[in-house]
Sequence to fold (325 residues):
Amino acid sequence: MSKVKYYYDSDTLSYRKIEPKKGRRLKNIVLFMIGSMLSGFIGLFLLLNTSLIDTPKELSQERELKNYEFQFEILNKKLAQIEEVLANIEDRDNNLYRLYFEANPIPNAQRRAGFGGVNRYKSLDGFNNSDVIINTTKRIETLQKQLVIQSKSLDEITKLATEKEKLLVAIPAIQPVNNEDLSRMASGYGWRSDPFTKARKFHWGMDFTAPRGTPVYASGDGVVKRADNRSAGYGRHIRIDHGYGYVSLYAHLSKYNVRRGQKVKRGDLIGFVGSTGRSQAPHLHYEIFKDGNRINPINFYYGSLTAEEFEAMLKIATQENQSLD
Fold:
């Protein structure tokens, strides 16, 4: 209730009530409203510049930040799964694939090496979640590097596997004369009695006794290096270069079924048993060279003999008897 004011009227010698003017009352109402609005705006401005109340923009940004944090959390879980799978692949790569193909394993220090030099993540500093962002970025870049190394390793393994396949078909791995065509396995690799001088002499190959004209087969893939009789003692003979340092020799042949420079596959018919050169009777003298050195052919029949047949051949081959050449 508004306060009533009076004034003293000297003419009537009495107090009269002061009636407010209508325009002034309206003015007071307008001033009050303006003052209230200004006070409200000032108060709201002060509140908005404190931490007590967030603006709609700040609330929206806060929601976005929480969403980003949630997305980073999901991303890091996925990165952990990828790291686990990649670690398993790396383990198999080092301890299975590279071991099988006789390749050196890749050290973990090389697989997981960091990035040196200047601070790569300087641009990511200064934010509320800089640690999370930098850590995630580091994990992604490390994974990228590991994937590149693993990809190159698998390329190398693929190449080694291809070479291994070629090597396996190139190695002279079968008996050059079929068992059913053999009269006997006459002599093996080692010290033997010379059939002509009777002196003890080292025999560099294996002698397979068989009738003249018995087929002789290539023991591995390769290229015919020689097919002639221009080597002392061997008579008509064939040499096949298998690559990888391996050469096989087939001596005392009666005739050839291949020519120099011809490519042959394991099991191809290359010639026929004879008794040419320094030979006492029809047989095949068979040798294997590795990097220019003669080696024992007995270790290269895994492609054509059973365990029992190999055991019987080994027993005969180790006997110090008389060779046929």
Remarks:
- The first strand starts at residue 6 and ends at 9.
